[in-house]
Write the structure tokens for this entry.
Amino acid sequence: MELNNELYTIEWAKQSHLSDLLSFFYENFDKEETMLKNLKSNCNSLTEEEEKLMRLDHERLIRAIFTFSPCLIILENSSNKIIGANLMIVSKNPKFNTSDGVSAVFSNNPPRTKLMKQYFNYLSEISEKAHLFEKFPEAKAAVEFYAVAVDKNYRKIGLAKKLMAEGISFAQNVLRDIGFIFGVYTSMYSKMAAEKLGLKSIMDVDLLTYKDAEGRTIFENTPPHNIISVMVLDL
């Protein structure tokens, strides 16, 4: 199926969208993202209150990112409901900038729950291992597709690809000094959509290699989505 532009509208999210956007990401990102979903499934004692606190952890971070970052949304015209979103982060190369607001946002909004701390620690470790600004030393800034999500009832019609394509166009034609676009892709489907737009994997991580203190596989329930890819489009 192809995207029908008469049925959907893509636009920039405004402050008035934030409440709906937080709910949208919780239902279509937090509940489905490969690593986070697996961490939750392995915690048999996760209570309703702990689940609520985990949601608040991520909502607090998303709110902070939203204050300074561009976010594309797709609305269904008939209902005006958010059915897709691409929350982006613009980061600066420390070689050219002594301070970066992105680092402050993450450090000022640390997760308070154990599982969310683990989740973000793993993501941070993967991103740091990629050494992106070392691989692209002349890039003054980069755009990260932090969270690309589509409503489960509107998939396989090209919405994720459309969100990323619009994000690429924005980075190329509107923002200044953007050297590359990247994302940490944790599902086969998101990687395929990114590949169609020219993003290429520069580092793959097999989640099955992560072990706990007793030697047990931490992300044992992730196949066939166990290969995490840091994907980049060099501009």
Summary: The helical segments are 18-30, 34-41, 48-66, 101-108, 114-130, 132-135, 159-173, 188-196. DSSP finds eight helices and seven strands in the chain.
